[in-house]
Amino acid sequence: MWSGMETYDVVARWPESVHDSRIFQNSRALELIKNRTFQGICVADGSYAQTQFIYTPHSNPITNAQKRYNYAHIRTRNMDERVIGLLKSRFRCLSRKLGTATTTSSNIIVACVILHNICIKYKIDLHFDQDESQFQPQTFHAEVFVDGGNGFNIRNSFINRHF
After folding, report:
1. Which of 47, 64, 87, 148 places its Cα 20 to 30 Å from the Cα of 110?
2. Mean pLDDT of the chain
3. CB contact at 8 A, 3 and 120
4. Where does the record place the DDE Tnp4 domain (predicted)?
5. pLDDT exceeds cutoff 90 at 114
6. Is beta strand 42-43 parallel, antiparallel or unpaired with respect to 6-7?
7. Distance separating alpha carbons of residues 119 and 117, to the nearest angstrom
8. Dihedral sign of CA atoms 97, 102, 108, 113 in order
């Protein structure tokens, strides 16, 4: 879960072969959103199911509202890519397989995220050779998985209200 460039939730207890959506389904972030402790929604790529809490891109935008939604969706998701890129730039060990036991790797990842948040909070610039051009919004085409059609209706209702 991101706010600005800070990370508020990290789940690092599974090996890399686990899909992001499974990790998110078992995260504290989703629990906080479902319980309305945290107000908001999650913006995810098309590999996630569209639900009342998770918003995915429209796979075939036709109307101007759907196109505006996808544009806003892409721009919002771009923050994820920027944070991940910054983390990997600051902590090079995150750019490759750690080669340690899962528990040790989890601890390393969490430590890097904590140090990253300290850098953000205290405005410590650990700017390495990060190329900002790699973080420009990009269009993508992904299949959107919906939960029995209900996700499609949820997204369309959201688009109609906001775009």
Report:
1. 47
2. 80
3. no
4. 7-117
5. yes
6. unpaired
7. 5
8. positive
Other Cβ atoms within 10 Å of 47 Cβ, number: 13
Helix, strand, coil shares of the chain, percent, nearest 5, are 50, 5, 45
Task: Give strand ranges (E) for 44-90.
Answer: 49-50, 54-55
Per the confidence metrics, is the pTM higher than 0.85? Answer: no
Length in residues, the chain: 163
Amino acid, res. 16: E
Rounded distance between C-alpha atoms, residue 128 and residue 106, angstroms: 24
pLDDT single digits (tens) 16-38: 677 877 888 888 888 888 888 87
Amino acid at 102: T
